Amino acid sequence: MLGPRNPSDYRNWEKGCGPCHPYQLGRLQGSLMYTNTGMIRNIQLTWEGEDGKLYATRGSDTFDAAGKPLKLKPVAELNNLSGELYRKFCSRCHIGAEVGDSTGSSHAGGCAACHFPVNDDATYTGSDREMRGRNPYSASHRMEPLPPNQVCARCHNRSGRIALSYQGLYDGNNGHVPTRNGQSGPVPLSGNRNAVHIAPDIHAAAGMECIDCHTSRDIMGDGYSYQNLYHQVEIACEDCHGGTAPPAYRVITGDGDEAVRESRSYRMQMRPGMAMVLTAKGRAYSNVFVKDGKVQVLGKRSGKIFTAKVVTGTPEHAIVGHKRLECHSCHSRTVVQCYGCHTTYDLRENGMDFITGEETPGAFSETEDYRMLYPFPLAVNQRGRISAVTPGCQTFISVIGEEGNKLRDEDVARFKGKRQLRFAPFYSHNTGKKAVGCRECHANPRFLGFGQHVIEGADIMGTLMCDKCPDKPLDGFLTMDDGRVRAFAAITREHSRPLNSGEVRRVFKVNLCITCHDKARDKDAIYAKKLEYRALDDTVHKRLLSRP
Amino acid sequence: MRWTTLYISACLVALNIGLGHAAENCRVCHRVEMAGAHRSLACLSCHVSESATVANPAAATGEAAPCNSCHRGFAAIFDHVMATRSRERAFADRSFTKVDPNFYRKNCNSCHLKGCLDCHQGGGHRIGTASADLCLNCHRGYFVGNDYFGRAPREDSLRYQRGKRFQGEYYLTMRPDIHAEKGLTCGDCHSMQSLAKGQKSAKGCTDCHRISSRPVEHRIRAHLEKLECYACHSAWAPQEYGSFFLRFTDSPTREDFWLKWDETSGEYLRSAYLRKQDSPPLGLNARGRVSPIRPQFIAYYTHIVRDKAEGRENQLLAAEWKAYFPHTIRRGTVMCDDCHDSPRRFLLESSQDRIYRLEEDGMTLGSFWDQRGQTVINGAFLPEARYRRLSARTNAFQKGYLEKWQTFVNRVDGSSSR
Which of the listed residues B114, B181, B309, B403 has the most CB atoms within 10 Å of its CB? Predict the structure, then answer.
């Protein structure tokens, strides 16, 4: 046995876990949760821009999505604000880092981050008397092959906050109330934050855990190094619920099948002959199968069987104009939106560089303008589909020099050639069965990115404004002035963009029909083809509209 | 006759001033520079007499008698709410006084009218007309005033205490009231005469504005008969959902509540569960018209003694709403569905639409947007049956709706009507 206190730490895992689990370790070493390449690249995009190189938490040789060798440079060599921000602010949520002093956010380093969970105090309470009460340590020596939600929530409680939203927690407003036992409450989080309860995701409410949807390849990688999480994640809503086509599946033909091997620790094992549902990348799930004509999902830890409703062909999912919509555009119950992220880098103070382990001049702090849950804006994402978007990021950068002088004051970084804020396509993980209503979306310009507003003639006038540019809404990216629609912020990711004026007009125009034809789910035939607005002038409509 | 009376009055005032100057010795010691409207007044015109000098002639305690001797009738302002704070006292009495008998004195007493000089800037010797900034000394934070100039309170957490500051408080930048943009200030509607009479304002909307029949909304009789103008034309409103007063006794963990505070905070810290600034919910005001309403206050109390909650934690002491006039007027409005298809706006949110789960966090109420367990102190919530009627897609409604959207859509991107 190896000597170090954590044999699974990145310094030791080649000899610790690797000899028995080479397939898993090999994948993990190129995965985003270890490299953080996507995070670092996105910070660069927000701050100084890309420099043509790809960075990782530690330098490594890996393979790109096409299988070609790829060299990732160590982020310690990124000597600018992006590098500093990552190393001093973001890198604690990297699977190689150990964190033992953070309320709700402590975790071990390496494989143990997920497979040897810590408790809230990061204190050992297992059977080894020598270890009992020591901190920071995993809660016990019991290996957890199937990590529970709390493990994911140790890191995924910031930025997109998907682990919070999924469980029905919200850390916006941050008012520390209602109190709990006389302390900041009701759910304390790291970084002086608190969370309150909101409606959980419908899957969480049903008893599904993060790993019941997310495959091990989503989480630990598939052997290739990607530059963004949406390339590594292989699952989609349509895999289980169907889209334009019903879910696809393949039958297990032998005992060596990956689904059989992966399900070894599940409450029920997959067997040859089972029809395994395929992910969006065409690989088989290890816990989702077709049985008796139904898509069934096995709770990996719970053993519960969940039946997924397939929506392919149902009238409300066959509306002609909605073919471009992501499921979560309508089915997100809330989408967490942080408006105005004001980051200050102060050279008068020292900050801990969690990558090099040294304190160096320059400390970061952060304030925020406003948080929103609902409604949420929509825009075109990297797949050319209409998606919920969230600020990503509205970063305003200030740099304070050693003498206290402001070297940069609330700067907006350049993106795609101009100074502009950014929104990012985003699935909030707070899904509801009930969709956003037709009228609710079509008749409310907030869903298109105009922010809260009033409408005056052909002007949509925002009411919550940006401090820095008081003529622009803080909580949106579109303005309409005398009928002209303009975007003043970008949507990150390739091919993504705000809706254009033609699309905005089309969305609004549908209200001429929806106000009477509001029963899409009752098979109102007008939505099965392109809307014909001239019908409003036909004799039927004229007669109906002329009634007193 | 009227001109004759004015002439005689003016002569008497002039005579009085002249006599005062001749008789008084004040300025031998008090080398006071006078400026403003009162610059030619004798000292004793205000300070009354050399033997029984009134140190602060404008003090409310003396009903500002010297001021009132010229500005007849204006002392009546001290009988009204700005001086008596009767509404705030009554609120404290029916809520926090139960748990802290001195709550009003500790938390509410700093904003009452102490004298004429509270509003009339420059001090007594350089007196001037009341300026908006002085109104905002009291009408700060959540209270109507800063909204007019495009400012809304930020969340209380220090994470959100940033940005533009006014009179020591941080505010979100909002679109100001159109009247403020055009240069009108508080006193243009809230004249001294109206305040002395205990009226909210000297002018209502229709004293200046003729209701045009061009917008389709103005041609709907029910709108004109049943709605206040500002039910539609209030562009936004600060809304505070869940006003927590946390009282600390011997509790060092107070520091862990990362909340704004100042030297006036005393033993209390304040924090809202949630602040919003969008279109205000609607209800009925005292005259039965549809009006914006807002929480004032949904009040919770926790007493933390030696870092532990004493008694009931997060005790709901009031769930009160108030019909009011947000000073955020714009020509524009929201569209039809924001009222006619918006149960949440009338506090009729269905349980399946609830986002915030207050009961899970021990907050007693099912939802802030559920009328049950809550009250409007100066009006009423809109009855559910009435909401159902107004949300019915009748033929008359559909015609108005189509006209509204057709007019709007036709102008988007210069598109044609079809």
Answer: B309
Q: Does the distance separating the beta carbons of A196 and B313 come in below 8 Å?
A: no
Q: Which residue among A456, A462, A485 sits closest to B413, beta carbon to beta carbon? A: A485
A244 at the B interface (CB within 8 A)?
no
Q: Does A205 touch chain B (CB under 8 A)?
A: no
Residue A522: pLDDT band by 50, 70, 90 thresholds?
low
Task: For residue A62, give how far its alpha carbon lies from the nearest alpha carbon of chain B (Å).
Answer: 40
CB atoms within 10 A of CB A329: 24
> Do the chains contact at A463 and B328, CB–CB below 8 Å?
yes
Burial class (CB in 10 A: 0-12, 13-18, 19+), A191: middle
DSSP A37-73: HHHHHHHHHHTT---S--EESS-EEEE-TTS-EEEEE
| CA–CA separation, A50 and A349 (whole Å) | 27
User: pLDDT category, A383, cuts 50, 70, 90?
Assistant: very high
Amino acid B25: pLDDT: 82
Predicted pLDDT of residue B265 = 77
The CA distance from A14 to B21, in Å, is: 99
Residue A440 burial (CB count, 10 A): 17
Residue pair A280/A234 in contact (Cβ under 8 Å)? The answer is yes
Q: Are B273 and A457 within 8 A, CB to CB?
A: no
Residues of chain A numbered 347-386 and touching chain B (CB < 8 Å): 366-371, 373-374
Mean pLDDT of A109-123: 95
What is the predicted pLDDT for the residue at B110? 81
Which pTM value belongs to this model? 0.94
Question: What is the distance between the alpha carbons of residues A455 and B233, in angstroms, rounded to a whole number?
Answer: 10
Closest-CA residue of chain B to A534: B418
Q: Which residues of A touch B154 (CB under 8 A)?
A: 369-370
Spell out which residues of chain B touch residue A464, defining contact as CB-CB under 8 Å. 172-175, 236, 277-278
Q: Do A457 and B332 touch (CB under 8 A)?
A: yes
Task: List C-alpha distances in Å: A63 to A29, A54, B74, B310.
Answer: 11, 12, 83, 60
3-state secondary structure of A240: helix
Helix (H, G, I), strand (E, B) or coil at A153: helix
Q: Quote the ipTM score.
A: 0.95
pLDDT at residue B15 is higher than 50:
no
Segment B135-157, tens digit of pLDDT: 999 999 999 999 999 999 999 99
**Would an 8 Å CB–CB cutoff place A103 in contact with chain B?**
no
Whole-number pLDDT of residue B416 = 43
pLDDT for the residue numbered B417: 38
Distance CA A414, CA A432 (A): 36
Find out whether A477 and A377 touch, Cβ atoms under 8 Å. Answer: yes
pLDDT mean over A290-308? 98
Integer Cα distance of B221 and A407 in angstroms = 60
Which of helix, strand or coil describes residue A93? helix
> Which residues in chain B have their CB less than 8 angstroms from residue A177's CB?
242, 244, 246, 271-273, 300, 302, 314
- Report chain B's mean pLDDT, rounded to a whole number: 91
CB pair distance less than 8 Å for B308 and A182: yes
In chain B, the residue whose alpha carbon lies closest to the alpha carbon of A366 is: B159
Contact B396 A548 (CB under 8 A): yes
State pLDDT tens for residues B159-215. 999 999 999 999 999 999 999 999 999 999 999 999 999 999 999 999 999 999 999
A464 contacts B277? CB cut-off 8 A: yes
Helix axes B395-411, A501-509, angle to 10 degrees: 170
Q: CA–CA distance from B99 to each of A59, B104, B156 (Å)?
A: 61, 11, 23
B96-108 pLDDT tens trace: 999 999 999 999 8
